[in-house]
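for the writeup, i need someone to sanity check this before i put it in the appendix. the sequnce is what the collaborator sent (i think, or maybe the updated version? ugh). structure was predicted straight from it, no edits. if anything looks off just tell me and ill rerun, i have time this weekend
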Amino acid sequence: MAELTQPAGMTTAPLEAPRAKARRSPAVIVVTLALVLIAVIFAIFGFLCWQAFGTTGDAAKAKSQNAANIVADDVQWSLGGAFTGLQFIANLGPAALDPASRPAIDAALKALPSSVHLGLYDTAGNGSGNADTTLPASIGDTDYFTQMKRGQARVIPPLGADPSRFIIAQRLGGASFVGVAILAIPMSLLESFWAPQKLGPDSTLVICREDGWLVGRFPPLAGPLDIAKTSVSWPIVSASDSGTYTAVSTLNGSNRVVGFRHIKELGLVVYATISLDAAVNSVWNSIFIVLWLLVPIAVLLLVFALIIARMLRQSERTQAKLSAAVAHNEVLFREIHHRVKNNLQSVASLLQMQPIDKAIKANMGQRIAAMSAVHEHIYRSNNFSTVMVKSYLATLIEYPRRRRSPRRGFGRDRGSGDRQRCRDTARPDPQRGGGECLQARLSGEPGRHHQGAIGEGRGR
């Protein structure tokens, strides 16, 4: 019936679903944020690695200098006690070779480590009552014995073929030479100085005389070795009381950071060396350890991001399907609403054209208006489970009060223009919901719109 009331050639414009604004997918955002986070983590890690490599040399220099200072203090304390004991023996003169003086000598050397051994030799360089078999039986053919025989009071000889100990020799007697006393100090003493410093692999402690001759080293190294001739950095060492420098080892060709300090009172120089290659390798080892932890974490983070992105994509597809279904249902619902309004309008139009009693027409028109009011209220409220009775009753009461007398309905005095206008508006008005003509039909005044029974329709 609604199709019959719509003029030919006029069609209702199709309803379009609202377009969603273009935006980035949440899945893309999650993956992008995960990649950015991983990139930031590795960028920070790379910066820290670069900083570690940049500070390795400076840290090695500071550590070697600190170790040289500490070891120099230890050596000065240890050898200072040895020098004091030897001076006590030298003051005994010829009595130092007398076995009766041995208890007094042992008491003077009591403060020294038990691993330090004393040897006494006569004017010919032969041992005199030495119980220690590790000491040489004769030193008459050594250079340091000759030097002391000629008048030098004390000599620390260069490191010889036996690298396990270094020697301090003291001339006995005053103007007349009566013999030599030596203290043999094991290289394990240097090891006890080296271990607490934790200088790392391939590090060394070196003691040399101020003329450059090596007198002690840990790890042990067989001598003799003249550092003044083999080291290109000797001018730096001889010109400064302490300092650091970088050099290539003449023994194994490794890059080393060297810290040194002079002990002026003993005429010695203490070196603490750190392998720069070992320090760099230590940094690389630390980097690899961190990477072993960081890479799996980054991979897991990326995997979780991809899983979440997949879940979000599935949710988006589901939401898109639901949105499409809702939009389709809304279009169908609006079309049904239009059809109902058109049908009610057609019934009202047909009712006015029937040759029946006006009272019956009015009664039937009121019933149609009541149905239209219920339909309009439900459609406007978007609540299809309940009806707001209060507003609905107010509409029904307001409509009879405002409507005109039934005698002013369709009559012969009505102009053909009003009837034509009513026929033209028999289809739903896209802007006013199609209720104008129906209300006019029911109120008896075509073309006039009364708010209440049907009300102003929604824009379509």
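The chain has two domains: 47-281, 311-443. Confidence is low (pLDDT under 50) at residues 1-17, 404-460.
thx in advance!!
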